[in-house]
Design a protein that fits this description.
This protein is 46% helix and 18% strand. The chain has 690 residues and is an alpha/beta fold.
């Protein structure tokens, strides 16, 4: 009787599963539901006032004197702890995953990005179901025992750490790419091939094929073989910490198996839809996960248009690359604001090299250590040729969801009909998005939040000017405490790309102090700059490092900008700051650098500066600048103070704030980046507080 009922159930289920529209309706419904769930506030198990926590160490990273890790307690916590001695560093480095820790510290809410269109750390943590950051003050190991799963993870990590090629083996086995050099990763990204170093369907398919082949040779039945592979893949997902792309790939493999086993005859494209539905129901935050989006969209395109992938190996690879490029382009633009037009050609070399040689060798090396030398040779060869591969970088400003939808509609119609009109419409759409910022005749002035420093972007149409780069003032540290340097200009460049800027016409370095000029060379290495203006007086090491062919003494751009010079050479960098006056549709912006009261007095003697609309306060609100006489004379409607949160200098000083009692004050430590949009209709102010 049970057998009959089972057959009837499977028959009825098979009938239901034949409705193709069912999967599309399910997918759209779950995507909408995911948007709703993402925007609902996630209730935390903790209160902000809690101090004591106990949980399992789930991952860790040590860099300099910073120990960052995740703790699985009542909910997941992102933890940071600053080590005090090198002995403590050695102890914490020896800790294994899965042990139980007792922590004491203070919870803080993760911050949003304060420079628009850049990496949002709060959003990233939310994707991983983390609501709080724990700033640890005291750490204690309660129990060194670990579960079987964590014991295996620890053994795998320890095993990989002994390899010369550990950076790539770690990436391909555990999905952790953190060991690969940042410059190398940046090269892969610029070439448009970085996605192939993430574990995805290609790797899961190859891995499962190898296991099935071995099991077949061992004469294990097909059903049992698939069950063994599924069990292994489920275990493997835990090794990779359930990365989105791995979940999607393994989910598809399992669903394809059941489709075959029970003869449901569901189309592969519908199985992919079902796979995406299940994963989004488990974690809706994957909807904004770049790995999941790439994996899902590329898989859809290759399954949907598999009929087009014909010919010899080279032709098939080219067609796969073209289809994947076309469908993944919006995701690339949304996340990077640029793409390499020649990435399709680069894939012809890199994809076979990685998929047929590098990945299999990494897996084999894990089990057969002597292969590590061969693998290292291939890696060195790959890294040596990447700088010579083809790059034609196209910067495209931030695109709206409406543009993305229109793009995919045109792309679908093109692949369905092969009519050139739809390809023309796609190109026209991209060109419109590309040139729109150039046609925009509004003035934009952005006071970027670069901490305790200055960096100001001024843009109108095709012209872009940058005043100062920002930069962290370095303090002497012991060697073991030193961490990788964070570059503010990485965010600056991404922001510039997002507003359609691929080159800077002029960079003005108001003076050579690190908080204004330290990142000039990193900027020059990563974005095209036509001219650099530096201040008068003696040059320091930062100013001397700027290529002389870029240096110019006067501003020759299209913006209505004037450099105000007192004709006096002072005996310090701050007083020699370049002071600039911008006139934008009858609005006046005055940028003071770090000029002191002394310079302010000389400026008032030489120039008639009055009724300033926006004043960039000198020296971050130090009481050496912004004297009452100068503030009264300039009478700014708005005052902007570029200052770091909780800075050690106590900026801005109360006396400066008091002098500005008739001005509306904006501060980067409170308001984040401050954007002034100016046209004939007036002035619009927008802030990006965290």
């Amino acid at each position: 009787m049970l057998v009959v009922l089972e057959k009837l159930f499977l028959l009825r289920l098979k009938t239901i599963l034949q409705y193709n529209y069912l999967y599309l309706i399910l997918l759209i419904s779950v995507i909408i539901l995911s948007f709703i769930r993402i925007n609902l506030n996630q209730k935390s198990c903790f209160t902000i006032k809690e101090k004591e926590f106990v949980g399992i160490l789930t991952n860790k990273k040590i860099e300099g004197d910073l120990f960052s890790f995740e703790l699985q307690s009542k909910e997941k916590l992102k933890c940071t702890y600053y080590m005090k001695t090198i002995e403590e560093k050695e102890f914490l480095n020896s800790l294994e995953l899965g042990i139980t820790l007792s922590l004491n510290g203070n919870l803080s809410i993760p911050l949003n990005n304060t420079i628009p269109n850049t990496f949002n750390y709060k959003k990233y943590l939310k994707q991983n179901k983390i609501n709080y950051i724990l700033n640890v003050e005291k750490l204690e190991v309660l129990n060194n025992k670990t579960s079987i799963l964590y014991s295996i993870k620890n053994r795998i990590q320890k095993h990989i750490s002994n390899y010369k090629s550990k950076d790539y083996i770690n990436a391909f086995i555990t999905g952790d790419k953190s060991l690969i050099d940042e410059d190398i990763k940046k090269d892969y990204q610029q070439l448009g091939v970085s996605h192939i170093f993430a574990i995805s369907g290609m790797h899961i398919s190859l891995l499962s094929s190898i296991i099935l082949f071995v099991l077949k040779k061992l004469k294990v039945s097909e059903n049992h073989s698939y069950v063994i592979v599924i069990i292994f893949l489920c275990f493997y997902m835990s090794i990779t910490n359930y990365q989105a792309s791995v979940l999607r790939s393994v989910g598809l493999f399992i669903l394809l198996y059941f489709n075959k086993k029970y003869d449901f005859n569901i189309e592969v494209i519908n199985i992919l839809f079902l796979d995406i539905v299940v994963i989004l129901l488990i974690n809706p935050n994957f909807l904004s996960n770049i790995g999941f989006l790439y994996s899902s969209v590329v898989s859809f395109s290759l399954i949907k248009y598999s009929r087009l992938i014909k010919g010899n190996y080279l032709m098939k690879t080219l067609k796969v690359s073209l289809i994947a490029f076309a469908f993944s382009l919006p995701i690339t633009l949304i996340n990077n604001y640029e793409f390499n037009l020649l990435s399709v050609l680069n894939n012809l070399l890199i994809v076979p090299l990685v998929s047929l040689i590098l990945y299999p060798l990494s897996v084999l090396s894990f089990f057969i250590k002597p292969i590590d030398d061969i693998l290292l040779f291939i890696i060195n060869m790959l890294e040596s040729i990447t700088p010579y591969l083809l790059t034609l970088k196209i910067v495209v400003p931030k695109v709206s969801i409406v543009v993305v939808i229109i793009y995919y509609i045109f792309l679908y119609l093109f692949f369905e009909s092969y009519k050139k009109i739809f390809l023309t419409l796609i190109l026209a759409l991209l060109i419109i998005v590309k040139i729109q910022p150039v046609l925009d005749q509004n003035y934009y002035v952005y006071f970027l939040d670069v901490g305790q420093g200055d960096s100001i972007v001024i843009k109108k149409g095709s012209e872009c000017l940058l005043i100062d780069t920002g930069g962290k003032v370095g303090f002497q540290k012991e060697e073991w405490k030193k961490r990788k340097e964070y570059y503010y200009t990485d965010n600056t460049i991404m922001f510039l790309y997002s507003i359609g800027v691929s080159k800077i016409d002029t960079v003005i370095i108001t003076h050579g102090d690190a908080d204004h000029a330290k990142e000039i060379n990193h900027l020059l290495e990563n974005i095209k700059v036509q001219n650099v203006i530096i201040n008068k007086g003696e040059l320091n090491y930062l100013e001397k490092s700027i290529p002389k062919n870029l240096l110019t003494k006067t501003y020759k751009g299209k913006l209505n900008l004037t450099i105000l010079d007192t004709d006096v050479i002072y005996n310090n960098e701050n007083d020699n700051s370049i002071v600039c006056l911008l006139s934008a549709y009858n609005y006046k912006f005055l940028f003071m650098g770090d000029a002191s009261v002394k310079t302010e007095t000389d400026l008032l003697k030489k120039y008639n500066i009055s009724n300033v609309d926006v004043l960039k306060i000198g020296h971050h609100g130090s009481d050496t600048s912004s004297g009452k006489t100068f503030i009264d004379a300039t009478a700014p409607k708005y005052a902007v103070i570029s200052v770091g949160k909780n800075n050690r200098y106590g900026h801005p000083k109360k006396s400066v704030v008091d002098n500005l009692n008739k001005s509306k004050i904006y501060r980067t430590d409170i308001d984040g980046t401050i954007n002034f949009k100016i046209n004939n209709n007036g002035l619009l102010i927008k802030t990006y507080a965290n």
